[in-house]
Design goal:
alpha+beta, 67 residues, two-stranded antiparallel sheet
Length: 67
């Protein structure tokens, strides 16, 4: 029987975008580098997101409380 060591541990990452799917098995030794690379990708491609207007959400909750 094979003994478990840190090199045997992997993390399975699954992604689905529309109908396309992908998965990656990241070894324990590479998890920090993988996490850094994913964070960089998210910063590059998700920088155009708009922040929600907080006044709209506050007005909706206030009107629900009054009713």
């Amino acid at each position: 029987m094979k003994s478990e060591t840190e090199s045997d541990h992997v993390c399975l990452i699954r992604v689905k975008v529309g109908q396309k799917r992908a998965n990656v098995m990241v070894p324990f030794e590479e998890h920090a580098r993988f996490q850094t690379n994913i964070a960089n990708l998210l910063r590059v491609y998700l920088d155009g997101l708009k922040k929600r207007d907080k006044s709209e959400t506050q007005n909706k909750t206030r009107s629900r409380r009054v009713a």
